Amino acid sequence: MSSTGLPEPWTVRFSKSKSRQYFFNPQTKESQWDEPEGTDHAALKQYLVDHPLRVRCLHLLIKHKDSKRPASHRCDPITISKEEALEELSVYQHKIEQGEKFEDLAKSRSDCSSFKRGGDLGSFASGEMQPPFEKAAFALKVGEVSKPVETASGVHIIKRVA
Ligand SMILES: Cn1nc(-c2ccccc2)cc1C(=O)N[C@H](Cc1nc2ccccc2[nH]1)C(=O)O
Predict the structure, then answer these.
(1) Which helix (H) or strand (E) holds 134?
(2) Which positions fall inside the WW domain (predicted)?
(3) Which of 7, 80, 92, 135 lies 20 to 30 Å from 24 when distance is taken between CA atoms?
(4) pLDDT band for position 2 (cuts 50, 70, 90)
(5) Which residue numbers are catalytic?
(6) Percent of the chain with pLDDT over 90
(7) Where are the domains of the chain?
(8) What pTM does this model have?
(9) Quick check: ipTM above 0.85?
(10) HSE of 12, CA atoms in CB hemisphere, 13 A
(11) H-type helices in 24-130, by residue range?
(12) How far apart are alpha carbons 48 and 32 in whole angstroms?
């Protein structure tokens, strides 16, 4: 039995087309919706808590002059330095710690086009976001807020919501 709770060599994957998880045997190339016979259901459940196939996050992005796309619905062009962006982000970090709603802060300040949805990026799997963002997002527990995260887009605060 592997740490997944699945009998070897079964793995668990996510079907984007069906928006549900499925099970795949890399030896036989079989795939199926149901858990394979002999699955330790409790161990599989815990594995998926510790290793989510997908996460859903909100984020607040502050771009700077060296961002890969230094443009925003808020103002063009963006001229602040990365240091100034980090300084401003720390103000929002404090507001979040003081209980201000993440969505409201993202709507008012985020330079990502997801601002209109309170920074909601929807759910995503590994491989869909820039690596530093993915690493930070998948390390969060549901409800947790990250420390500042730097990507080529700028500097972010991330909140995992599912
Ligand atoms: C990844 N993504 N999703 C949306 C989005 C999602 C839902 C609704 C509207 C927009 C926008 C983006 C996006 O790349 N936006 C970029 C900025 C950006 N760069 C990111 C890097 C990682 C995660 C989110 C990021 N957002 C932009 O507007 O210049």
Answers:
(1) helix 131-139
(2) 4-38
(3) 135
(4) confident
(5) 59, 112, 130, 153, 156
(6) 96
(7) 11-50, 54-160
(8) 0.94
(9) yes
(10) 24
(11) 41-50, 82-97, 102-109
(12) 17
